[in-house]
């Protein structure tokens, strides 16, 4: 069976296994620590961690009160990352995120400009209610999320590494919001839907969070260890069958590629970045589950969080009450069948 490898120098097999075992132990401790304060959201925690382990950004979508902010804060502590939070509002300016130049004057009266960095100069940025800011401010994040630097007054300023954006969005209150443009949505590796907790989890929330003391988390790995795991994931082999499944899934989600259901229901589909996201996240999910190579099951499990924000339905499909996840569900069945 052929494999696709990264362009990074490959470790020998024993070194890969040793590195994977070390990474597995670290990931297990991270999951255990996060579980001290986040109850019953295993899928949400897993997908958010997958986005970070893959080196990308995630968009968390859910109604208020589902611990989205707490999850991001917790991950910052547990992963040993410098974190900052920006509450997006309609009057937020790009300089409020990126920073700005201020004029200094020394003892001799000589004036010069000095760059004062904004909250984006961090390793984990929480963009809270990102769709409440104006398009101009939203676009200030675009360059940072893709190129890992920002340009202010013509000067390039590199961001700390690793750099991750975890943004939250409320799907209900649409008054006074600015929907994220397609180009920015595409920058998010995954869209993580945050649902209501189960009965057992909600019972645990009530008991654990309304007493005199709450559990606190600690840092269990460093930013350097996180980068080593991210590098390991990029070196994991991917079989031809998994690559073919990714290509089939992504291409069948685009209209005009010979898939009748897609042509009827989809206005525009995912670009190549969706395939890249599936490749990285499938590797990360395999490692997360203790495997050294991803399978087609990983592709199937990640199809919805990777594709749903990279597709739009036609007006007719929306009028019929269809949702993007319905289309993705149909495409996934064809992957399983093949």
UniProtKB/TrEMBL annotation:
PANTHER family: MAGNESIUM-CHELATASE SUBUNIT CHLD, MOXR FAMILY PROTEIN. Residues 57-190 form the ATPase AAA-3 domain. It comes from Xaviernesmea oryzae. One of its GO terms (molecular function) is ATP binding. Residues 263-323 form the ChlI/MoxR AAA lid domain. Keywords: ATP-binding, Nucleotide-binding. The keyword Iron-sulfur does not apply. The keyword Kinase does not apply. SUPFAM superfamilies: P-loop containing nucleoside triphosphate hydrolases. Gene3D superfamilies: Magnesium chelatase subunit I, C-Terminal domain, P-loop containing nucleotide triphosphate hydrolases. This is AAA family ATPase. It comes from the Bacteria. Belongs to the MoxR family.
């Amino acid at each position: 069976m052929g494999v696709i490898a990264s362009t990074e120098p490959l470790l020998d097999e024993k070194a890969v296994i040793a590195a994977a075992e070390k990474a597995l132990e670290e990931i297990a401790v991270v999951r255990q620590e996060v579980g001290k304060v986040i109850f019953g959201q295993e899928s949400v925690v897993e997908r958010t961690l997958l986005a970070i382990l893959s080196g990308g950004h995630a968009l968390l979508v859910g109604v208020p009160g589902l611990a989205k902010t707490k999850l991001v804060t917790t991950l910052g502590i547990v992963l040993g990352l410098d974190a900052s939070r920006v509450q997006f509002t309609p009057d937020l300016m790009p300089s409020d995120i990126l920073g700005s130049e201020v004029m200094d004057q020394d003892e001799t009266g000589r004036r010069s400009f000095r760059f004062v960095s904004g909250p984006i100069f961090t390793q984990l940025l929480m963009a809270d209610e990102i769709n409440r800011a104006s398009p101009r401010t939203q676009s200030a994040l675009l360059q940072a999320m893709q190129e890992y630097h920002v340009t202010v007054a013509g000067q390039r300023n590199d961001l700390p590494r690793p750099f991750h954006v975890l943004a939250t969005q409320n799907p209900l209150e649409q008054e006074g919001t600015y929907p994220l443009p397609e180009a920015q949505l595409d920058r998010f590796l995954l869209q993580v839907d945050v649902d209501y907790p189960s009965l057992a989890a909600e019972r645990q929330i009530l008991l654990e969070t309304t007493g005199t003391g709450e559990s606190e988390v600690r840092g269990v790995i460093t930013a350097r260890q996180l980068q080593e795991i991210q590098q390991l994931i990029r070196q994991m082999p991917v079989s031809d069958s998994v690559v073919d499944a990714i290509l089939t899934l992504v291409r069948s989600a685009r209209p005009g590629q010979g898939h009748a259901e897609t042509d009827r229901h989809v206005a525009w589909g995912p670009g190549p970045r969706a395939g890249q996201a599936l490749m990285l996240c499938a590797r990360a999910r395999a490692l997360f589950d203790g495997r050294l190579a991803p399978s087609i099951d990983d592709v199937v499990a990640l199809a919805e969080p990777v594709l749903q924000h990279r597709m739009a339905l036609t007006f007719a499909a929306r009028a019929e009450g269809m949702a993007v996840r319905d289309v993705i569900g149909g495409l996934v069945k064809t992957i399983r069948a093949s």
